[in-house]
Structure formats: C-alpha cells, structure tokens
Amino acid sequence: MYTNKDIDSALALWKTIGYHEEMPLPDGVTAELENTGHILGSAMVEFSRGESNIIFTGDIGNTPDPILPDPEPLHHARYLVMEGVYGDTPHENREHRREALEDVVENTIREHGTLLIPAFSIERTQEILFEIKTMTEEHRIPPVPVFLDSPLAIDATELYRKHQSFLKKGLRKDGDGEETLFNFPGLRKTYTTDESKQIKETPAPKIIIAGSGMSNGGRIVFHEKEYLPLPTTTLLLVGYQAPGSMGRALLEGAKEVRVLGEKVPVRARTENVSAYSSHADREALFAFAVGVADTAEKVFIVCSEPKTGAFFSQRLRDYLGVAASAPQEGDTVELEF
C-alpha cells in the first residue's frame, strides 16, 4: 500500500520544465518539451543526440480549440512515436459543433428534461463550460441551472485561472480570469457529496456535467442511474468511449446497462458530438505527420485500437511513403540513435 509519505517522496523528485527548455540527460542526450494543445500544459517530448532525434507526441490536441493554442507543428524527426486514437475517424465540422451543442441544449429545455454530460475533468469540462457561457451571453439559449458536479473538475478549473499563460492569447486576462472565462448565471459548483445528492431536488430543465467521461465511475453514474430511465433525458457524449466502457455501450445504443450493480433501462436519448474530443481526428493527425514525412525513417502509431492503428499506419505508408507501423503490446523495436 502507498501512504502519504510515499506520495510526498515521489513529488519531491518532480521538476517543472517549461516549453522549449533544453534539459541535458546522460550520454549526450537532451530533452525538450513542445506544446501539443491537448490539455492545459500538455507536451510532446523530443529526445536528441547529435543529428538524431526521436519525438514522442503523447496526446495531440484537436484544433481549433476555443481555449488552448494549436499543437506546435513538427518539421524534423528521425523517429516519430505518435498517437492515433482517431486515426480512422473524422470529427464533425468543428465550426458547427457549437450549433450541435446548442441544438441538444434547446431540445432538452423544450422537453423540460435533464441533459447529462459525462466529461473528463481537465479540458473537456472547461471547454463545455466556455461554450455554454458563450451561448448564454449571446442569448442563444435561455439560462438554466448548470451543475458542475465534480470536485476534480472544479479544482482543475481553478488551475486554468492560475495558469492563463497556457491559454490562447485572446483569452488571457488580468486578475480573476476564471470569472471571465467560465462563470455565468446559473452555474452551480457542487463540491460535496451532499450538494451532489441535492441536484435531483432542482426541477428540470437542467444540465449536469460530471465525471467520468466514459461513465466508468465518478458521480455521473449516480445521475445516469437516476435519469437514464426517463425519456425526457438526453445523454450527450463529447469524448472518446473506449470498448468495454459503459459510455461505449450507450453510444452503441444499449437499451439496458448495469449501474452500481443494478440493471437500469435506457429510455433517454443519446447524442454524440465527437468534435468536442480533445484528440486530433484522422485528417489532423495526417497533417501533423506530413511535417516530418521528408525526414522520418520510422513512424510508430500508438494509443489506438488495433484496427485504427493498422488503418492509419497504412495511410501514412500509401500517401507519404514513410515506414509507418502500429506496434502491439509486447512488440520490441531496436533503433539506431
């Protein structure tokens, strides 16, 4: 078992590194971080030695993002290890995603229903809050109670206020930027369990944003147990739903799910707006790889379902002529570096 002492010892080893700060490592290797525009402070890592380098992208952001800057483009990599979550799937037109969200909100209000939004606590939640705030201020939707029912998301939103240098330049404000960015009439932050339980006392229409984003746990499952049986409920999925997750089952049209050990009928309407994903889609990933097509000796597609990785690596081979592959668990690759 880990204790607080173990956590303190581990955190004592952490060192904060800014973007584009060259960090020396053993054997003549240096490391440098570059912005991937995925979540606040996300970074890819470039390891270099002499003229050779290898880049591990981690998660690549979906552009254009209303809050974060675009991922930094690549221009040179001998080896590239890149994510491929949506390597075979295009998102809907991101320019129209706010309209899609607006339609879902308006339909829910018209039916005097409850809108459930399972959302990851970092980036997805802040993006949805920003969009609802904008639509409310522009009088595109009437003000309704919006519950941010996630202690982690509430704390993460505070981080966005404290670290505005990572936001798009047009959003950086002096003073209390969180008030400017995310707060709006009707928003209620329910930090405690008791506050969360009281949400059901607020009559519909209302919006509930809670984790986890794939409905695998967190407070959203309690709300799903309460509201999925109601035909006036709308479940809005705004992110990737992994195979085997309850979110994936709901996305695929399950008529019944097991929640907290009980079978729950699904009479709610399920909507999906994948353009709110924080991951780049098929076209954006391809455009990202184009930047190193002339220099890359090998490209490895990771963090994807097997069929997705196979499709995307084949696409890179066919259209860019690069040696791309999608290694699976247990595969070993030796590289000259």
Helix content: 25-40%
Give the overall form.
globular
- Indicate the radius of gyration in whole angstroms: 22 Å
Class computed from helices, strands and strand pairing: alpha/beta
User: CATH architecture of the largest domain, please?
Assistant: 3-Layer(aba) Sandwich
Report the biggest beta sheet as strand number plus sense, adding barrel if it closes. Answer: 7 strands, mixed
What strand line-up does the widest sheet have?
Answer: 1-2-3-4-5-14-15
Portion of residues in beta strands equals 15-25%
Total beta strand runs: 15
CATH topology of the largest domain: Rossmann fold
Rounded mean pLDDT is 93
Descriptive notes:
Helix 9 (282-290) crosses helix 10. 28% of the residues lie in helices and 19% in strands. The strands form three sheets. Strands 1-2-3-4-5-14-15 form a seven-stranded mixed β-sheet, with helices on one face. Strands 8-7-9-6-10-13 form a six-stranded parallel β-sheet, with helices on both faces. The protein folds into two domains: 14-90 and 278-325, Metallo-beta-lactamase, Chain A; 94-276, Rossmann fold (3-Layer(aba) Sandwich). It is an alpha/beta fold. It is globular and about 65 Å long. It contains ten helices and 15 strands.
Short description:
The chain is of the alpha/beta class. The protein has helices spanning 4-11, 97-110, 124-137, 151-162, 177-181, 193-197, 220-227, 246-251, 282-290, 306-320; strands at 23-24, 30-35, 43-49, 52-56, 79-83, 114-118, 146-148, 187-189, 206-210, 234-237, 256-259, 262-265, 269-272, 298-302, 324-325. The longest helix has 15 residues, at 306-320.
